[in-house]
Write a structure and sequence with these properties.
- GO terms for molecular function: phosphoglycerate mutase activity.
- Keywords: Gluconeogenesis, Glycolysis, Isomerase.
- This protein has 230 residues and is α/β, with parallel strands linked by helices.
- Helices cover 36% and strands 13% of the residues.
- The chain is built from seven helices and six strands.
- The chain has helices at 13-16, 30-45, 59-71, 98-105, 107-115, 152-172, 183-193; strands at residues 2-8, 52-55, 79-81, 177-181, 212-216, 222-227.
- It has a six-stranded mixed sheet with strand order 3-2-4-1-5-6.
- The longest helix has 21 residues, at 152-172.
- It is globular.
- The protein binds 2-phosphoglyceric acid.
């Protein structure tokens, strides 16, 4: 049986400041680094070994992965960085304070933007400095691929091709796989793995730095073993 472990990045500076983040490349805090090291320690204590790891192209996930690997003495394993594992793009909300935005637009509207499956936050205008289209890490991608905003459904649509093309084949070959990514790119994956309905995914929350473990059988059927806490 192959294992899949999902880890959301440790606390980021904008988690701490309660700001919408999305594709903005914010780093983790000291607490976030501790959370990541703790995750690695727990995985090591459980005797899990990884053959390969996947992460996004955002430093909060990449650095979390480093800390997890370091704590497991597994810095040597192959790592694939894939933009399709990035956080859900937060559009024009990127960088705004969540509480201030709720005071302006109401809690209900903000909850819809944050957790509905198919309502997108307002889009960035393409001349906005927060647009990632000219960022070299996305060179070669089309305007359609570099979003100006996304709902979770859009995130599912870009995460699943990465799953089918690069991640699932590793599990099918019996490899243990670690993914360090983001609250919503991981919710997209969990929705797919557990076949969660569009209106039920709203209730799924993934905490920072707590490994979520799945077993895959020979038919590639996942069994959720749960979050690995102390
Ligand atoms: O700001 C973000 O990008 C995400 C994850 O921190 O926030 P939310 O909880 O609203 O999905």
């Amino acid at each position: 049986m192959a294992k899949l472990v999902l880890v959301r990045h440790g606390e980021s500076q904008w988690n701490l400041e309660n700001r919408f983040t999305g594709w903005i490349d914010v780093d983790i805090t000291e607490k976030g680094a501790d959370e990541a090291r703790d995750a690695g320690r727990r995985l090591k204590e459980a005797g899990i070994h990884f053959d390969i790891a996947f992460t996004s192209v955002l430093k909060r996930a990449i650095r979390t992965l480093w800390h997890v690997q370091d704590a497991m003495d597994a810095l040597w394993i192959p790592v694939i960085k894939d933009w399709r594992l990035n956080e859900r793009h937060y559009g024009a909300l990127s960088g705004l304070n969540k509480k201030e935005t709720a005071a302006l637009h109401g809690d209900e509207q903000v909850h819809i933007w944050r957790r509905s499956y198919d309502v997108r936050p307002p889009a960035l205008s393409p001349d906005d400095e927060r647009d990632s289209i000219n960022d070299p890490r996305y060179a070669g991608l089309t305007r359609e691929q570099v979003p100006l905003t996304e709902c979770l459904q859009d995130t599912v649509a870009r995460v699943l091709p990465a799953w089918y093309e690069t991640i699932a084949p590793q599990l099918a070959a019996g490899k243990n796989v670690l993914i360090a990514a983001h609250g919503n790119s991981l919710r997209a994956l969990v929705k797919h793995l557990e076949n969660i309905a569009d209106d039920a995914i709203v209730a799924v929350e993934i905490p920072n730095g707590v490994p979520l473990v799945y077993d895959f059988d020979a038919e590639m059927k996942p069994t959720r073993l749960g979050f690995m806490k102390d």
